[in-house]
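Q: I'm writing a short methods note and want an example of a predicted protein-small molecule complex. Could you take the sequence and the SMILES for zinc ion and return the bound structure as tokens? Please keep the output block clean; save any remarks for afterwards.
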Amino acid sequence: MLLNLHTHLLKKQADEQIIFNEIIPDSEEGLENFEIQNTESWLSAGIHPWYINEKLYNLQLKKLAGIAKDPAIKFIGECGLDRLKGAPLPLQEEIFIKQIRIAEDLKKPVIIHCVRCYNELISIKKIVRPRVPFVVHGFNTKIEIARQLLDKGFYLSLGGALLNEESNALKVLQEIPLERLFLETDDKDISIIDIYQKAVEVKDLSMEELEKVVFDNYLGLNV
Ligand SMILES: [Zn+2]
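A: Understood, no commentary inside the block.
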């Protein structure tokens, strides 16, 4: 079974275990009506930095804290920081830290969206000193940043960018220790098999070995 660490699409394209992402809504009406669906699937739930409502974020956090206890929810997130889009960065940082606290209370790992805020991400981890693991998803940035994150104990989840021969993600795949690797499709309508296949080639493993490595990494997060 292929673990797909992060997807926004419910349709399965393979024998895969997906972790379907639920975004906490940013409107009053959305929040009132929000319930987790698909509890037969594995889920992550969080307040995405693009969808922080500057007036309603306390309600958003309350909603998240309420549902996050559900055993179907394996990760808190995606949450994090985005320099290019969403709420002002100081507010993003505050909401991110509050979500880390929820994750700490529940002992669930955090799945992170990060765009051009890696210094901030690393300093938040240093200040908060979480016991729960941090996984940066959809990583496709320079190898130097990957090295820093790996050095600080982060896991990296790589996705569709691996199918581009010129991508940073592919360079990261060549270097990342197997025990820090996850794979995902995110919001792209691509097959997780193709992503695993790329990793099989680069890491020189059999598909069965890779499946086991990634699944063991997940089990090692103590979720
Ligand atoms: Zn996503």
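A: Remarks, as requested: The chain has one domain: 2-220. The mean pLDDT is 96.
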